[in-house]
Each structure stands twice: as structure tokens, then as C-alpha cells.
Design a protein that fits this description.
It is a single chain. The chain is an alpha/beta fold. It is built from 22 helices and 17 strands. About 45% of the residues are buried.
Length: about 525
């Protein structure tokens, strides 16, 4: 039998997942019009249901064959449908298995990895969702009668190193049936093993796939995000888009104007696609008309600064605008900054919660899906790790709040401020400096030195940050917000933002405190351009 160099396969589940399979088919045909493709439909229909007639008509319109496949574990573990999809009847040198929640965004056949001579091409997982415990990995491989491989790879988003672990949303293989057989055997072995991480059952396709690739002796070439871009945790890059965009769920498309335009274009070009989308409430809003231009990025804003300098106040003011939502001190942001060298948890949090808000699942009701989304961090963690934040959110504006050191330290002293231990991911020199400050026997000097430590972080702040003076924020909120919102659209402002007089409750400061502030803090405040009022 003659073979073709490449073929594609993906799964279509009956029901609410049909639109994503049809969108994948449409985008695949736009950028790989002549490559054979087969959609795998799980059987039996009594268990899985049958795709709607208009869904099947769309596949026929795009010249995509439909093949029934068996799913090894049935409804109990639906993710193993990918194993069945590798067994579709197709004569090709390489079979590319795709998750149906993927959009093709560019000329797919241009990527050399689609012609790789490796047995398997797959991208390392975004996160280490299975386990980071070596003992768990040892039990996992032992359950499949295999040894843990000695080499390690890094997850592409979180950066965690561990045994090879892949995202199975895109797999290219020269040996599809052999891979399916070994993969199924490993999945069955893990299913029968007690004491494995919970994720072995929740994402049972990926741990079994990782072991199968090693146990089966398959050669592997790692793919980059160009062939499996995690749009649920990252905005699309500027310039050339990835070839395969893994969006995971409809709300990611809803909150990304670029992807929203891609889906609207598909619906506008193909009545068959529009019909399928209209039949499903989560997808019907996308049938609005073509939008081929690249819209502006969805606006996000981070707020931080010296603790006690007004980050919460700034968030409160932003919530007065009709197309802005500001959250204060979400625990996920602090956890990401204190536990992860690359704090990808912050863009994940922004993306996920933007989706919840856009879907109406919170009490917030912004005016549009492209609302300004702000997160305020009052303990200064975003400021202290500003470089790490900038690395994962290079274009997100950061507003950093600063306040007259006399007022700040008076508040710290009045509330018996006890600073938390230094962030364990700060550079060693910075953690040592904080330890020395906290060990200083003189309290006045200790508080002044701590304010100065924060001020030095403000002085070396990255680009695309805005310094916000607490006093101006209170007395002239519109003027203070102008540079924060420059180029961003927060919607209609409140009729009259409240103006407040600065609170200078400095009765707790004694002469020794004032001397330390004047000598240690005021010179730095002058460099920052902060207006200082030594009296009263």
C-alpha cells in the first residue's frame, strides 16, 4: 500500500466537545489542505453517544474521514481515547495525534519536526502535574516493569526538572500502533497499582505515555511550544504565532482577542462551522463575524510597592471604573512568588480568573470581556521579585506605590509591624541584608533600614513600571491614575473619585525615629521624587 508522508488524527466526543473538533478540522484544512486526516469517534455509541449530523457534515465538508475506535477504559478514563486514535487505519510515514482543543494558526508543514526521523516527537509538559517526588516516579516505573530513566528534562512553563514527562496533546510518531500497544499496557499497569499520585488517574494518559516512550525504546525528539502552545497560561507571542495553539477551554478563547478573532473567522468562512457553534451555548457567542486584524493585547495590571504605601487604595480606586476589576492579595500570587523561581502561577491566575469573571461566575460585572484586570499585592512580594515577574509577564504594566517614609514607618511602628521572613527565592545577598537589618538592636534604625531596603528596589525597578505617590493618590486621584492607566482602557471613571486628606498620625515617632528616618530614608525618597513632610 502506498503511504503518504504525514497524516493527522484527533478525537471527536459526542456532545459539548464537538465544536472544538470541528474548529480543529477547519483550521487544519486552512493550513494543511492536502494532508490526510482521520477523526476518531469513540465506540460503542450506547456508551459514548454519536456526533450530531451537522458535525459529521462539517468533517465531510473538510474531507476528513471518520473512524470508530475503542477506548481502553471506556468512560472511566476518557483521556485514554488518544490510545485508540493512534490505531486509526491510515497509511502514513508519520501520524500526528492532536487534542481536539487545539487551533492551527499557521502553515503547519513548514515545521521540520513534522519530518523528524525520531520515533516520537512531543513537547515536555507545561507543569509537573503528576509528581515531583522521586519515590513516586520509582513506583510508577516499577508498576510498568521499567526503570526510571537517568536523564531529566524541564517542564516548559514551571521549569521543574524531573524524569521525562510530556504533554500528550500533540504527538507525532513513526510507529503509531506499537506506541499505542505499549501505552495501553502501561496505562493498565498504573490503573491496577495502589499508592500512586492522584494525578495518575486524573491525567492517566500522561504518566503512562511517559513510561511507555521509555519502556518501548522509542527515540524521542522534544518539540517546542511552537507545536503545542499553552494558551491557557500564556498570551500569544507578538509577531509570528505558534503553529498549534492548545487553548484547553472555550473561555480562554473568549478572553483572548486574537483567538476570538480566529474562531470568528472560521465561522464566517464556513457555514458548517457556524452551525455547529450555534448549537452549543458555550460557543454560540463566537459566531459574530470575521475579525482578521490582530487586536490589542488583553490589559492586565499588577500593583505592589512598599508595604503600607497604598497598593490596596489604588485597587479600590480602579474598582470604581466600569470596565476594570482589581483583586487584592490573592494567595495564589504570593504562593507563586515564594515557591517558584519562574512565577508562572501569576499569569495562570490572571488567565483563569479573567475567564471566571468574563463568564459571569463572580460578583464582578465589567463592561466588556477585554476589561482591565488588576491584582494588588500589599506585602511587596511583586516588587521584591520584580525581575522574575517581568520575565513571565514582559508587557504587563506594574504600578509600584511609595509613601512618605515618616508616615510609612509611623504606621509600621503603630501596628507593631513584624515583617515576614525573607522570600526564600530572593538572591542570597538580599536575604542576608534583610537578616542583618532584622538583627539590628536599635528599633528606629531597624525600621528606617527596612524602608530603605524597599526604596532601593524601587530605584532599580524594571521598565514599564509606574511609580505612584501615596499622597497624590489620596489628594488628586485622577492625576495619580493618569500614568497608571495611560494606554489602558478601564472604561468609564467614577463621577467623582473620592479625595482624602493624608493621615499623618506620627505621635508614635520619637526624636530618635525621626533622626534615623532623616538620615537613612529621606535621601532615597528624594531620589524617588517622593514629597517628604518632616513635620508634624
Amino acid at each position: 500500500m502506498a503511504t503518504t508522508p504525514l497524516a493527522f488524527t484527533f478525537v471527536c466526543h459526542a456532545g459539548p466537545l464537538e465544536p472544538q473538533a470541528v474548529l480543529l478540522a477547519a483550521s487544519l484544512r486552512r493550513y494543511a489542505p492536502n494532508v490526510p486526516a482521520v477523526v476518531a469517534v469513540p465506540q460503542p455509541e450506547a456508551t459514548w453517544g454519536a456526533p450530531a449530523e451537522h458535525t459529521l457534515a462539517a468533517f465531510a465538508r473538510f474531507g476528513i474521514d471518520v473512524a470508530p475506535v475503542e477506548v481502553p477504559f471506556g468512560r472511566d478514563r476518557p483521556l485514554t481515547n488518544k490510545i485508540g486514535a493512534l490505531r486509526v487505519p491510515v497509511a502514513a510515514d508519520r501520524l500526528a495525534l492532536l487534542d481536539s482543543d487545539i487551533l492551527v494558526l499557521g502553515p503547519l508543514l513548514d515545521d521540520p519536526l513534522l519530518r523528524s526521523t525520531a520515533d516520537v516527537v512531543a513537547k515536555p509538559a507545561d507543569f509537573q502535574t503528576y509528581t515531583r517526588d522521586p519515590a513516586d516516579w520509582a513506583r510508577t516505573y516499577a508498576a510498568c516493569d521499567a526503570d526510571v530513566p537517568s536523564h531529566r528534562i524541564a517542564s516548559t512553563v514551571s521549569g521543574h526538572h524531573g524524569p521525562p514527562f510530556f504533554n500528550s496533546g500533540m504527538v507525532i510518531t513513526r510507529r503509531p500502533r506499537e506506541l499505542a500497544d505499549v501505552w495501553e499496557g502501561c496505562a493498565r499497569a498504573l490503573a491496577a497499582t495502589e499508592g500512586l499520585p492522584f494525578a495518575a488517574h486524573r491525567w492517566d494518559d500522561q504518566p503512562a505515555f511517559a513510561v511507555a516512550v521509555h519502556k518501548g525504546g522509542f527515540t524521542v525528539e522534544p518539540a517546542t511550544e511552537r507545536l503545542n502552545y499553552p494558551a491557557h497560561v500564556r498570551t500569544l507571542p507578538e509577531g509570528a504565532p505558534p503553529l498549534l495553539c492548545h487553548y484547553h477551554r472555550p473561555r480562554v478563547i473568549r478572553i483572548d482577542p486574537v483567538l476570538r478573532g480566529v474562531v470568528a473567522d472560521c465561522a464566517a468562512r464556513h457555514p458548517e462551522v457556524a452551525r455547529v457553534l450555534r448549537a452549543h451555548p458555550a460557543w454560540a457567542p463566537f459566531v459574530t463575524g470575521a475579525r482578521s486584524e490582530r487586536p490589542a493585547p488583553v490589559p492586565d495590571l499588577l500593583i505592589s510597592g512598599i508595604p503600607g504605601a497604598g497598593a490596596g487604595t489604588l485597587a479600590e480606586l480602579l474598582n470604581g471604573y466600569d470596565d476594570a476589576v482589581a483583586l487584592t492579595d490573592p494567595p495564589a500570587v504570593h504562593t507563586s512568588l515564594s515557591e517558584h523561581q519562574r512565577p508562572w502561577g501569576i499569569p495562570v491566575f490572571l488567565r483563569e480568573n479573567r475567564g471566571y469573571i468574563a463568564d459571569g461566575r463572580t460578583d464582578f460585572r465589567p463592561a466588556s470581556p477585554d476589561f482591565l484586570f488588576a491584582v494588588a499585592n500589599r506585602d511587596g512580594a511583586v516588587l521584591a521579585r520584580a525581575d522574575a515577574v517581568r520575565a513571565v509577564l514582559p508587557h504587563t504594566r506594574v504600578a509600584l506605590c511609595v509613601r512618605d517614609p515618616y508616615d510609612t514607618i509611623a504606621d509600621w511602628k503603630r501596628t507593631a509591624e513584624r515583617p515576614p521572613p525573607p522570600n526564600p527565592l530572593l538572591p542570597e545577598a538580599e536575604r542576608a541584608a534583610l537578616h542583618r537589618i532584622d538583627a539590628a538592636p536599635d528599633r528606629a534604625e531597624r525600621l528606617a533600614l527596612r524602608w530603605a531596603w524597599w526604596a532601593r528596589y524601587l530605584l532599580k525597578r524594571p521598565t514599564n513600571t509606574v511609580l505612584v505617590d501615596h499622597e497624590q493618590l489620596l489628594t488628586a486621584p485622577r492625576a495619580a491614575l493618569a500614568p497608571v492607566l495611560a494606554g489602558l482602557d478601564a472604561g468609564r471613571p467614577p463621577a467623582d473619585p473620592p479625595r482624602r486628606a493624608p493621615v499623618r498620625d506620627r505621635g508614635v515617632l520619637n526624636a530618635h525615629d525621626r533622626k534615623a528616618i532623616a538620615e537613612i530614608c529621606v535621601p532615597l525618597a528624594d531620589q524617588l521624587g517622593v514629597v517628604v513632610h518632616p513635620e508634624p
